[in-house]
Design a protein that fits this description.
about 90 residues; mainly alpha; two-stranded antiparallel sheet; 2 helices; binds zinc ion
């Protein structure tokens, strides 16, 4: 018999250790970088760009492009994922 409570405690301990390591290991305070020019910006900055006009303009252009890219990606991944999943399913069953 496996003691479910014991296992749960062990998992909780391990995961808290894991999180602790990450928190104490990072020397750089939390920050983000402008996605255009990579300047450090506030963590709360949304969208993730600095205040430069060129970056704001570039970001707007990118957002428009991203919509197109996202649709293309869906189609692209769909074309790949469906045969891949089918192959995986037949492999598992066979
Ligand atoms: Zn910038």
């Amino acid at each position: 018999m496996v003691d479910a409570k014991k296992v749960k405690d062990m998992v909780a301990k391990k995961s808290s250790q894991f999180v602790g390591n990450i928190a104490s290991g990072g020397k750089v305070p939390p920050h983000k970088h402008c996605r255009i020019c990579q300047d450090p910006i506030s963590v709360k900055a949304e969208p993730r760009i600095c205040k430069q006009e060129t970056c704001i303009e570039q970001n707007e252009k990118d957002e428009k492009n991203q919509k197109t890219v996202r649709i293309a990606m869906f189609v692209f991944f769909g074309l790949f994922a469906i045969p891949y999943l089918l192959a995986l399913a037949t492999r598992v069953m066979g």
